[in-house]
Specification:
The chain is of the alpha/beta class. The chain has a domain at 52-253 and 310-322: Type I PLP-dependent aspartate aminotransferase-like (Major domain) (Aspartate Aminotransferase, domain 2). The chain contains 16 helices and 16 strands. It has helices spanning 28-31, 34-39, 51-63, 72-84, 95-105, 123-130, 175-185, 236-248, 254-270, 276-288, 298-302, 315-325, 328-348, 375-384, 415-423, 435-446; strands at 88-92, 113-117, 120-121, 134-138, 160-166, 188-192, 200-201, 204-205, 212-216, 229-233, 250-251, 311-312, 361-362, 367-371, 397-398, 424-428. Strand 7 and strand 8 (204-205) form a beta hairpin. The chain starts with 27 loop residues before the first helix and ends in a 5-residue tail after the last helix.
Length: 451
């Protein structure tokens, strides 16, 4: 199947629309040319940052004013609240820190238990443990990668205080069932919307179903501020406690903020599709020299609490976030169109599509995932074609190598999650992936034979 359309990558609000090109467009030959197939690499990183935002960052870095503190933080929080339809938003230096702040605001402390899916990032149980509480894992549903609601009640004890509703890959948990269970046992609900900014169920956005929710804007997420996140709630008491925790937290120093900002620019440049074959060597050197600030530190992989935790979001990052929010609907529409194309293509190739097909759901599709038998073989094939094949999450507690004992995860306790961690692959959906790129991805998949 060949598509006769392409999608321009946006640069400002005036370009926020699906530009369908005539079938005899002068770009038709280009998108199928040897240049594109041989030299344009397709990656996951730097999928939402625009060149305009890179210019804002560079000007701000060299200007040196209002990088740490300034008026953009409150403006950003206000726009987040308006977009989601919630009363309160409170920004932090990372999504995990926003989650930690929510737990503290809910009064979670020594001896309490939090129920969560056994298919998540190590920073999630870490935040629970930093509060003195214990994470209690529940296996996931194979069709959604979300917590299996039928198994939640078996894990509830007198110490249980919170159900953690993680919308994996931007596909909703069964919030109706989770809400019913929470009311039955008088539990709080915290939504993990790290993958779900803009996802909707019955016209209501993710992050508005529980007592509180958090989002992350780390480099690989739906919008990016390099690092960062925010907590949201409609509960005034929770909001006041969040604001108190935020007010008592420190900012990164100016040099760290400049490094985070410069990293955003470097990712944009070094992951640029047509120079990625050179950029990968520069990235390797910068990684080896510890220039890049990693999203999950060695301390966090071990389960240790970082020295500065939580921290506040800087003014410069909030400015970037504001600009990213302007393009969020274009971003989501693009991802949904690509997801539809992937879905139709995978069905024709007889792959099982393990996700909601309910029209009430509008996932955000941070990535498009499916299951294969031999992931290594498929990854090798895609790598040979200059295409990055994702494997979020490649461990029930991501990243692989996390100290499971320190976060109370017993191998074998979540067999579905452990199977999915070994067989899940995902395709990119971000705005820098065109429909021609998606075609190319599917063409490579067609040449693959499962073993």
């Amino acid at each position: 199947m060949k598509l006769s359309v392409d999608l321009y990558v946006y640069h400002d609000e005036s370009e926020m629309k699906d530009t369908r090109m005539p079938q005899k467009s002068r770009f038709k030959n280009l998108k199928n040319s040897i240049l594109r197939k041989r030299f344009k690499n397709i990656r996951f990183s730097s999928g939402t940052i625009t060149w305009k935002e890179c210019l804002i960052i560079l000007v701000s870095i060299f200007n040196g004013r209002n990088i740490v503190e300034g008026e953009y933080v409150k403006k950003y929080e206000s726009e987040v609240s308006k977009y989601l339809g919630v009363k309160y938003a409170c920004s932090f230096g990372a999504g995990r820190m926003a989650f930690y702040a929510i737990l503290k605001a809910l009064g979670i402390s020594e001896g309490d238990e939090v129920i969560l899916p056994g298919y998540t990032c190590v920073v999630v149980p870490n935040a629970i443990i930093y509060c003195g509480a214990k994470p209690v894992y529940v296996d996931i549903e194979p069709d959604t990668l979300n917590i299996d609601v039928k198994k939640i009640e078996t894990k509830i004890t007198s110490k249980t205080k919170v159900i953690y509703a993680q919308h994996t890959f931007g596909t909703f948990c069964n919030m109706d069932a989770i809400t019913k269970i929470a009311k039955k046992y008088n539990l709080k609900i915290v939504e993990d919307c790290a993958h779900a900014l803009g996802a909707e169920y019955n016209g209501k956005k993710a992050g508005t179903f529980g007592d509180a929710a958090y989002f992350t804007t780390e480099q690989s997420k739906l919008i990016s501020t390099g690092m960062g996140g925010f907590a949201v709630t409609n509960d005034e008491k929770i909001a006041l406690r969040l604001q108190k925790i935020q007010g008592e937290s420190e900012y990164h120093n100016e040099k760290i903020i400049q490094r985070i900002a410069l990293q955003i620019v470097l990712y944009k440049v070094l992951y640029y599709p047509y120079i990625d074959f050179i950029g990968k060597y520069i990235r390797y050197f910068l990684n080896r020299s510890n220039f890049f600030i990693v999203s999950t530190t060695e301390d966090e992989v071990r389960g240790d609490k970082p020295k500065q935790y939580p921290i506040r979001l800087s003014n410069l990052q909030a400015q970037i976030g504001l600009n990213q929010l302007k393009n969020i609907e274009f971003n989501l529409n693009h991802r949904r169109k690509l997801a539809n194309f992937y879905r139709e293509s995978l069905q024709k190739l007889n792959y099982k599509i393990p996700e909601h097909n309910d029209v009430r759901y509008k996932p955000s599709y941070i990535r498009y995932w499916f299951i294969v038998n031999n992931r290594k073989k498929l990854k090798d094939l895609f790598n040979s074609e200059g295409i990055e094949l994702g494997e979020w999450f490649n461990s029930p507690i991501h990243p692989k190598g996390s100290f499971l004992k320190n976060i109370h995860y017993e191998p074998g306790c979540c067999p579905v999650a452990e199977y999915m961690a070994n067989h899940n692959v995902n395709f990119p959906t971000h705005p820098n992936v065109s429909f021609a790129d998606a075609e190319r991805i599917v063409e490579v998949l067609r040449s693959y034979e499962e073993t």
